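## tool: complex_structure
## caller: assistant
## args:
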Amino acid sequence: MFDINLFALFGQLLVGLINGSFYALLSLGLAIIFGLLKIINFAQGALYMLGAFVALLALKYMGINYWAALIVVPLTVGLVGVLMERFLIRPIANEDHLYSLLLTFGLALIIQGTFTHMFGSSGLSYAIPEALKGGMKLPFMYLPNYRAWIIISSVVVCFSTWWMIEKTKLGAYLRAGTENPQLMQAFGINVPLIVTLTFGFGVALAGFAGVMAAPVYSVSPDMGSNILIVVFAIVVIGGMGSIGGAIITGLGMGVVEGLTKYFYPEASTTVIFLVMVIVLLIKPAGLFGKEA
Amino acid sequence: MNSPATISENTQKTEATYGNHNEKLRINNLHAFYGESHILHGIDITVHQGELVTLLGRNGSGRSTTLKSIMNMVGKRSGNIVVNGTETIDMAPHKIAHLGLGICPEERGIFASLNVEENLMLPPNVRSDGMSIEEIYEIFPNLYERRTSQGTRLSGGEQQMLALARILRTGANILLLDEITEGLAPVIVQKLGEVLGLLKERGLTILLVEQNFRFAAPIADRHYVMEHGHIVEEVLASELEAKTELLNTYLGV
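## result:
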């Protein structure tokens, strides 16, 4: 009766947690940017792809290895974000939010198109770093080291980010800046600078996810657009702009997807959207969102 | 306009930088706009070191806008605003506070996403000799008791104390206070009056927007009366009795 194949179930749960780690990193970046700037950044997926490509090219042409890339790539992608905010988004900051949405959507298409033109649409591969090759044999499953590393490091990065925003002085500036930027300026805080750096940080998270993803997914120009729609659904489920909600929902939806793959594989690509519809009907502000 | 006679009393208490530097805030021909609306029509105000000056007037006469203009919180402004000897009319909003200014806005501006202590610690120090957190909790024991509550869960009076305490901590020595007694119980108004007296004793310079003329009268050195975005009258504390009738006409009481 209970002919559950534990090996397969845990296998799918692991895949779910891996996907969930990427969902969490990407939706966290989106939630930060939306929470503070009220910008829906459609370029987040393209910047995640950019992160993976920068890691790949940096290794190939400059000999920058995986570990260095974990630092260098987020900084590079973050810098792209800073320039984007400063020179493209800020000039239209006072317009309707639809403008920034369309702008970032256009940017995503341009970035993706450029990479397709240069590298074609078939995927490239990035080797797993030497130190993380191999795996551990657990009683119920085989756990590859690199996959364990993805889950641990993304959870650490996500929760440090959450801690920084919710518990530190810098985070207090961010939260207060969202509520009343004008008064924050009158207190002597450079709000435009904070906005730029926050956008850069949110985007750098996508770059970090890109490096993490390079060894497990194939590095291709459309890797960002494929994942972005799911990530947006997750941000909606978690509650737009809720930092903790984005992290928990990201990991949780990865697991839900994994379980669906085991029990009813046909629904695995739609289950997240189904959850989104149900959540929107029952709690329109999202699971962790504040009712307006 | 400048009336050194009225301030000599206070300045005796505040030795330090007197002489030519006693002018803490000078506003000349200030015009301010919100979008297309022209709110202030050429305001002139001077506040000296250690003075407590009030802006009186009816609602909508431009008093709050005057305070906001000083902090560059309005759409557009022109004229001269000299703070501690520095012209600020072209200065970015976030730089002005660092000249030693602190504002307590009419809506109090307590942040809902921060608790009481986070609200208190939020504004960066603008000078080095602000009140310590212990001193602030001594003056406002309620804030200490409620330090972990969400900022906007406090009563109106407590929120007002928090808004005031927050700028005292930064070391600001020119305080712009907007309707701090509005809608508060008499016992709290009295407490705020005591605190203002204490601040004056310490030599802080205060520009106070007030509806409650009786609250301001015993502690103020001078009063400006505003109407339709103009200063229509300047009244010294010594002339108050003689001009009460006139003030009542302007304030409509």
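## assistant note: Chain A has one domain: 6-111+121-224. Strands of chain A lie at 135-137, 142-144. Handing back to user.
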